[in-house]
Design a protein that fits this description.
By secondary structure, the chain is mostly helical. The chain has helices at 2-27, 36-65, 72-88, 96-119.
Length: 120
């Protein structure tokens, strides 16, 4: 079970990094038209498929292992933030400061899970 949790946690971290790099790239473009059905939707659907499973695995892991400083409400908030940045990374009008705050919050939780799950 922990192997699957670690794999999905690392995968979500990579998706978040992709979203950050995409946003940084499009912010430097003069004009960028996003194709919702061919770009945004397939990426977000894939991210959320992994995130749905990750959320359940994380909550089960918390219930069983009771790690310090990781709680189910953090998992829910991280899940929602992952959804937000996976969408917002495609749009030039995204506020970078807010995006980066969500990104850093997500990474904190994902890195905490990786660190604690490896030790168990």
């Amino acid at each position: 079970m922990y192997t699957e949790l670690l794999t999905k946690t690392k995968l979500l971290k990579e998706f978040c990094n992709q979203s950050l790099h995409r946003l940084e790239d499009i912010k430097h473009r003069e004009v960028y038209e996003v194709d919702f059905f061919n770009e945004v939707k397939p990426f977000v659907d894939n991210v959320m498929r992994i995130a749905d499973s990750w959320r359940e695995l994380s909550k089960e892991w918390i219930k069983q292992e009771k790690p310090k400083n990781i709680h189910p409400n953090q998992i829910d908030a991280t899940y929602e933030n992952i959804q937000h940045i996976s969408i917002q990374g495609f749009y030039q009008d995204t506020k970078q400061k807010r995006f980066k705050n969500m990104y850093e919050s997500i990474l904190y939780v994902l890195d905490s899970i990786i660190e604690k799950a490896i030790k168990i």
